[in-house]
Automatic annotation (TrEMBL):
<dbReference type="InterPro" id="IPR046960">
    <property type="entry name" value="PPR_At4g14850-like_plant"/>
</dbReference>
<keyword id="KW-0809">Transit peptide</keyword>
<keyword id="KW-0496">Mitochondrion</keyword>
<dbReference type="Pfam" id="PF20431">
    <property type="entry name" value="E_motif"/>
</dbReference>
<dbReference type="GO" id="GO:0009451">
    <property type="term" value="P:RNA modification"/>
</dbReference>
<keyword id="KW-0677">Repeat</keyword>
<dbReference type="InterPro" id="IPR046848">
    <property type="entry name" value="E_motif"/>
</dbReference>
<feature type="repeat" description="PPR">
    <location>
        <begin position="5"/>
        <end position="39"/>
    </location>
</feature>
<protein>
    <submittedName>
        <fullName>Pentatricopeptide repeat-containing protein, mitochondrial</fullName>
    </submittedName>
</protein>
<feature type="repeat" description="PPR">
    <location>
        <begin position="142"/>
        <end position="177"/>
    </location>
</feature>
<dbReference type="Pfam" id="PF13041">
    <property type="entry name" value="PPR_2"/>
</dbReference>
<feature type="repeat" description="PPR">
    <location>
        <begin position="107"/>
        <end position="141"/>
    </location>
</feature>
<feature type="domain" description="DYW">
    <location>
        <begin position="322"/>
        <end position="414"/>
    </location>
</feature>
<dbReference type="InterPro" id="IPR011990">
    <property type="entry name" value="TPR-like_helical_dom_sf"/>
</dbReference>
<dbReference type="InterPro" id="IPR032867">
    <property type="entry name" value="DYW_dom"/>
</dbReference>
<dbReference type="Pfam" id="PF01535">
    <property type="entry name" value="PPR"/>
</dbReference>
<dbReference type="GO" id="GO:0003723">
    <property type="term" value="F:RNA binding"/>
</dbReference>
Length: 414
């Protein structure tokens, strides 16, 4: 193609991002800028911001924000909505809120994006307050709005408020609950200990439960130590996905909580016999304008000695404070010291250590992980935040965790 105009570039960039190649889409945007193409359309900037959002690339997102501001698009709804989503997904919820408040005209997408952002960061009070403002302002909530609200209630234990919102969605707005709404409601009930009610709903709801629905209930069974229900729920889950490692781990840990060590051994034998392998964990962190990827058990050669030395020092301090590794999160049949070594080399710990070594002192350390943070790493990150007096934000497959002063925003239930 001899010459590409703005329309052509927009189609290419949007195509890359919509197909899941966000890195390619952001790179194309940079190529377009280098070609000197004049940007006089807010849509292409919002598309590029969307790419940065999915990559959790805060530095790139900030640069795009600055470009949008220089071109006069900062207060436009389409760019503003994209920026709110980007900052929320890049773990900077305060900047997301600042951009939201600066949008001149807000639509249901603006409000819903902010509600979901607050909910994912564990800020239920703020999410519910936004909803009240939204309704008072005459903006009608949609299906996604209620997913965010129910998620907020679930992670804050607001059972009655969640029930009211679920009923209001149907009665006041005529919205038919989807599987996602039912999953949020079940998560809310089961997290708060209403396991029987949650099981009744899952077996009688009009839509077919999927893996996420059963998994929410199984996770709660482990928390509340209900081994009998765990077995029933695990059967459903394994029927949907027979080789899912997390199901076996949750079932095994539930048995362990109840002291049923024979059952624990049986589950572990099944894992070994079926040669089930957990999806490899990896985490990444932005340091300056560079992004560093860490895989479980691996540290970059040029940083390896520094990272391991720092983790050793932190481990000694944590053990002085009473920390003992919880090796139940290691699937493989290994010696105890080998299990501890596997936990020691989990990817999020390596990423956080690199952040402590390379970032500006006092700044927030932001890490993204592809899987759910394991319980032992969650304990370790709380302790590290207290020992180093640093705020650590981890976005895992489930939610955001804000670690500060030895406390996590999820209150140890995620």
């Amino acid at each position: 193609m001899p010459e590409r105009d703005l329309f052509t570039w927009t189609a290419l960039i949007s195509g890359f991002i919509q197909s899941g190649d966000c890195f390619g889409g952001v790179k194309l945007f940079e190529d377009m800028r280098r070609d000197g193409v004049r940007i006089d359309d807010a849509f292409i900037i919002s598309s590029a911001i969307g790419g940065a959002s999915h990559l959790a690339a805060l530095s790139a997102g900030k640069q795009l924000h600055g470009l949008g501001a220089r071109l006069g698009y900062e207060s436009s709804m389409i760019v503003g909505n994209a920026l709110v989503d980007m900052y929320a997904k890049c773990s900077d919820i305060c900047s997301a809120r600042a951009v939201f408040e600066g949008i001149v005209t807000r639509d249901v997408i603006s409000w819903t994006t902010m509600v979901i952002g607050e909910a994912r960061h564990g800020r239920a009070k703020e999410a519910l307050s936004l909803y009240d403002r939204m309704v008072l302002g005459g903006v009608k909530p949609n299906e996604a709005t209620f997913v965010g609200l129910l998620y907020a209630c679930s992670h804050a234990g607001l059972v009655q408020k969640g029930r009211e919102l679920f009923d209001s969605m149907i009665k006041d707005y005529g919205i038919k609950p989807s599987l996602q709404h039912y999953t949020c409601l079940l998560d809310l009930l089961s997290r708060s200990g209403y396991l029987s009610e949650a099981e009744d709903i899952i077996t009688s709801m009009p839509c077919q439960p999927d893996e996420a629905t059963w998994a929410a209930l199984l996770s709660a069974c482990k928390k509340h130590g209900n081994a009998c229900m765990s077995v029933r729920i695990a059967d459903h889950l394994l029927g949907l996905k027979p080789r899912e490692p997390s199901t076996y781990i949750l079932l095994s840990n539930t048995y362990a909580v109840n002291g049923k060590w024979g059952c624990v051994a049986q589950v572990r034998r099944s894992i070994a016999e079926m040669e089930i392998r957990k999806e490899p964990g990896y985490s990444w962190i932005e340091l300056g304008k560079e992004c560093f990827l860490f895989r479980a058990g691996e540290a970059p050669h040029d940083m390896r000695d520094e990272i391991l030395r720092l983790l050793d020092e932190l481990m000694m301090e944590m053990k002085k404070r009473g920390y003992a590794p919880d090796t139940s999160f290691v699937m493989h049949d290994l010696e105890e010291h080998e299990k501890e070594q596997q936990l020691f080399m989990h990817s999020e710990r390596l990423a956080v250590a690199s952040g402590l070594l390379k970032s500006v002192p006092g700044t927030v350390i932001r890490v993204v992980k592809n899987l759910r943070v394991c319980g032992d790493c969650h304990t370790v990150l709380k302790l590290i935040s207290d020992i180093t007096h640093r705020q650590i934000v981890v976005r895992d497959a489930n939610r955001f965790h804000h670690f500060e002063g030895g406390i996590c925003s999820c209150h140890d239930f995620w």
